[in-house]
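Lecture 7, part B: from sequences to assemblies.

Below are the input chains for today's worked example.
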Amino acid sequence: MTTSTPRAWWKTGVGLVLTGLMLFPVYWMINVSFTRDQDMRATPPHLFPTNGTLDGYRAVLDQQLPYLGTSFLVGLGTVALTVALAAPAGYALAKLRPPGGPALSFVLLIAQMIPGIIMAMGFYAIYLTLGVLNTLPGLILADTTLAVPFAVLIFTAFMSGIPDELLQAAVVDGAGRLRTFWSVVLPVSRNSIVTVSLFAFLWSWSDFIFASTLAGGGDHQPITLGIYHYIGNNNQQWNAIMATAVVASIPAAVLLILAQRYVSMGVTAGAVKD
Amino acid sequence: MTLYLAAFYAYPLYRNVELSLREYTVRSFVQGGAPFAGLDNYRAVLTDPAFGPTLTHTVVFTAASLAFQFTIGMALALFFYKHFPLSRTLRALILVPWLLPLIVSASTWSWMLNSDSGLVNTALGVVGIGPVNWLTSPGWSLTSVIIANIWIGIPFNLVVLYSGLQAIPTEMYEASALDGATGWQRFWGITFPLLRPVSLITLLLGLIYTLKVFDIIWIMTKGGPTGSSATLATWSYRLGFGNLLPEFGPGAAIGNLLIVLALIAGLLYIRIERRQQLR
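Predicted structure of the full complex, as structure tokens:
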């Protein structure tokens, strides 16, 4: 069926239409981001940004850069911390078979099912007493809870597939447990590290609930709050709102293009999106 | 790892249970000494006139989202399972709505559903239907957030069901083709039954995820107007963070009710997953 018969091309046509329908809102967001204020309420709306304007994007550059910077820092921090915590844990669960290992995996599955609002309230209560409310490290720590259970499960699944002979060979060569982990296990687990990092970054980048509860009153606010305040403060400049939305979607788009394979891998591995 | 779990999951959860059992104000957070209130917060929430409607909204939101996401996701999975030029690329592109930050999707839909100049009303106008106040009328707000949530959930259903389709041995189709089965018969006779385990998992994961949905509703309607699109999650958030005078106690109580629902779904999920691995 892989040969390109006329029938197959007909299917491509239908596929294009279906994809077009699914992606229409995304197109519309981009279209509106280029639309001039005075054309915004035109009837019928312009389907293409004729008389396009870059005003929206100018507004993003003027007002949203600090938010984007914060999101970037939080994203990188979350990725680093998630991998640092989850990779050793996954290795331990997969290969060292600690007592209580199965129970721990069970708890990790359950942990992914806790609604965000509950975690947010719990964190809020704790952070208020500790005085880390509205700080970057506080937000990063909270955001790791979105990805760590998923990450450990992915690492465990992947690392159980590493042949024991490979690890034994390292031990014969005189490597200790840590050394084996660092120079054998980690390099062969590259794929799972990419998958985990990808999701950890995307989730922390799009996190709204922790941002609004734990960082809403501070100087360091991520882009999700940037857009949220924007909608709240002016519901007239929709080109600027949509331009911010476009810019905020760029990481998702770039990551999708660079890492298609890993995305599907992550989803099929049972990713539960928050 | 256990330490991390204890510090970052168990402790917040414990604090949340504690919150729900006491009478907290912002001041008593800092100074301590919130009076113990027992189950008063739960009683307050359960007897609140908003409880019934909110629970109904949560159920309707979840059921409608799941039904449509799953059906459309299944249809798309079946379609894209056939090999044709560009099918891989298009399938990857359909993932975009799922990867976009929820705030982006929610604000895009808000604008498309805008009463005065939204695209949806313009399109309806073309076929002669008058403007609908999607987000600002109590009769439509729940429908609006459901539409947006369905759109966001389709890709997830597509990918998981697609991977389920890949696991079905092709010989079964060849055999049925020899028997002269039509496409429709093949779907109900082979694909659907064989896909049942994957379907169940997909629906349960969807259920757990949909119960948690907060961002989309909050950004599009804030649960309003007058609570007409509020679910347990947004209600809990509104009580805790949506007002100047936060009511953490009742907020946390609702949260804990929500977690009971999610955990029931979660335990079901794990049971089914276990049973499948045993096969």
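Note for the exam: The radius of gyration of chain B is 23 Å. Keep this in mind when comparing with the next example.
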